[in-house]
Amino acid sequence: MVGVVAVCVLVATASVVGAASLTGAAGDGEVAVPPPVHEPDPGPSVPEDVADDDGAEPGGVEEAPQPAPPDDTSEDAEDAEDGEHGEDPGPPRGRLVVHHVGDVNLDPDYLPTLRTLGYEAVWSGIRDTFTEADLVLANLECAPTRGGVGQPKQFVFRCDLDALPAMRDAGVDVVSLANNHSGDYGIAAMVEGVDDVEATGIAAVGVGADEAEAYAPQLVEVAGWRIAILGFGGVVPEPSWTARGALPGQATGYDPARMAEAVALARENADLVIATVHWGAEGALEPRPEDLVKAEAMIAAGADVVFGHHAHRLQPLEEVDGAPVFWNLGNFVWPRLSPAGATTAVAEWIVDPDGTVTSCLLPVEIDDRGVPAPTGAPRECL
User: Fold this and answer.
1) pTM (predicted TM-score)
2) pLDDT-based confidence at residue 294 (cuts at 50, 70, 90)
3) What percent of the chain has pLDDT over 90?
4) If residue 205 lies in a helix (H) or strand (E), which one and from where to where?
5) 52 lies in a domain?
6) Is residue 321 assigned to a domain?
7) Using an 8 Å Cβ cutoff, are 108 and 142 in contact?
8) How many domains, in total, are found in the chain?
9) Burial 267-306 (b: 16+ CB within 10 A, else e)
């Protein structure tokens, strides 16, 4: 188990070294101006094909025990065979492969393919790719609930709960609900969505019945690694969507110090920490400076990798302070509204038993049905 990493919030922009990118010019003039940093903000005008999101950025050293004599049959001697201080070291660590994809919308009214071809069809092009991973994550960009009342927003998305098993069967293990659509049917329905997702066998992060629950990580054990997964929502239509004290909602993606605090706490019980964050400006091909500050803070606090989503555009993969940051993963299960919006990727993060890390983008394109599939182009890696 990796030791606790102290929280260290960086307020200055650090240098960024190394980059891999599949992004390019939008080709259709669809690039938004980054919004100001405060919570929330109505934000700038955005390209038509990305104007489907109406939220805005709001002790001492213990003495080692003496070795027991060879003929000692005490309980302590037997425990020592399992590991230092009698602790079972657990299974040996293997090679860990993690995939993360961007925005997944399971609302049949927005993506008709779900209704016309079936829930499994939207995963048909990517299912084999997911089999290469030990753990698959996604951003679920709709409210997974049958309850609540539609909010006064331009775009309101409700996941069809009957579509969740197909997502699970395709290989998705964990989804973030910390985004600007999980509360489209109200805060109570947002929290209800956690239960609806987890009843399907998929873990959810970033939303809870109170602040402590919203910031609590999902802990999973894969390939001998104990992994903490945290979700943060940096795009909310109004402050009431953010969990505070006993109030329900999302973990904030606006406050670097609060995000770092959650990462440091999760690190205490994990070998690896994954942060998945809804952030960035819609239509932008590069990250915002304020999101670099957040990434630096989380990495200093112990995050091993950061995955971003919300921009509806694929942004670069870069290394920040020694850790990979997938700035924005674009659309994934989503209508094809433009070539730029249909250009996406699977983020691939590999950790070898010795701790060596490989980070890549696997090129993917969304077809006219809204179905993502690999393009066949080579991985682009740091």
Assistant:
1) 0.82
2) very high
3) 76
4) strand 203-205
5) no
6) yes
7) no
8) 1
9) beebbbbbbbbbbbbbbbbbbbebbbbbbbbbbbbbbbbb
- Domain assignment present for residue 8? The answer is no
Listed in sequence order, the residues at least 6 apart from 381 whose beta carbon sits closer than 8 Å to its beta carbon are 20, 358, 359, 360, 361
Alpha-carbon distance values, 16 to 26, 37, 263, 289, 324 (Å)? 23, 21, 21, 11, 10
Contacting residues for 358 by C-beta, under 8 A, at least 6 apart: 348, 349, 350, 352, 381, 382
Residues 6+ apart with CB under 8 A from 324: 305, 306, 317, 318, 349, 357, 359, 382
- Interhelix angle 289-301/256-267, rounded to 10 degrees, is 30
Query: 7-11, 161-165, 181-185, 207-211: which range is least confident on average?
Result: 7-11
User: Which tokens sit at 369?
Assistant: 């049905």
Q: What is the CATH number of the domain that holds 306?
A: 3.60.21.10
Interval 128-147 mean pLDDT: 98
Tokens of 29: 């003039």
Nearest to 119 by CA among 212, 200, 25: 200
| Cβ–Cβ under 8 Å, residues 150 and 194 | no
> For residue 292, is pLDDT > 70?
yes
Residues whose CB is less than 8 angstroms from the CB of residue 349 and which lie 6 or more positions away in sequence, other chains included? 97, 98, 99, 100, 305, 324, 357, 358, 359
Kindly report the average pLDDT of the chain as a whole number: 85
Task: Give me the domain span that covers residue 291.
Answer: 90-381
Rounded to an integer, what distance in angstroms lies between the CA atom of residue 342 and that of residue 336?
Answer: 5
Tokens standing for 103? 């925005």
Q: Is residue 57 part of a domain?
A: no
The confidence score (pLDDT) of residue 41 equals 45
Stretch (H or E) spanning 276: strand 272-278
Q: What's the residue count for the chain?
A: 382
What is the bridge-based pairing of β-strands 372-374 and 203-205?
Answer: unpaired
What kind and span of H or E run contains 342? helix 339-342
